[in-house]
Design a protein that fits this description.
By secondary structure, this protein is mainly alpha-helical. The protein is built from seven helices and three strands.
Length: 174
Amino acid sequence: FVHRDYPIDKLLYHENTFKYAQSTECAAEQDKFWEMHDALYQENLDFYAALQAGENPENFTIDKIRRNAEAIGLDMDLFNTCLDTDATLDEVAADLQAGASYGVGGTPATFIIVNKELDAAKLAELNEMGKYVWEQTGKDRKLMMTYVGSGTTTVMIGGAFPYEIFQSVLDLMA
């Protein structure tokens, strides 16, 4: 499993997308990447739940990043230095550029890779699965793309889908 940062454009989401991505990398320097990731994810869920409840929640701010960092027990001097000096900015920018070069257009994006080239019948099944996902969700069919070559098959699934979609792809690629 590999995680890469892909901060969504600040004009579409919020102005601190890069700082939020950087904060997970700063937390990783203290071996708390996933704790920070989970705290930020929960913050996102809480924000949208509050909006749906008709509330006016605090937007995504640097102060909220710092509160999350403190809540998970980070050394705040180290964390603040990392965040304030943009120490992880190049890493986040490189992840964003790499994702774009692979066809990622948003989050989440999941790549499933197997060390074999699938035959034409299985590729046709994957294509039909992509059509099904598109028809059921109304989402752009490009959200499920398949690449074959050099002894591997890669399926990129772009977007949040039910577990059953991922399980179907995994079963087909096994």
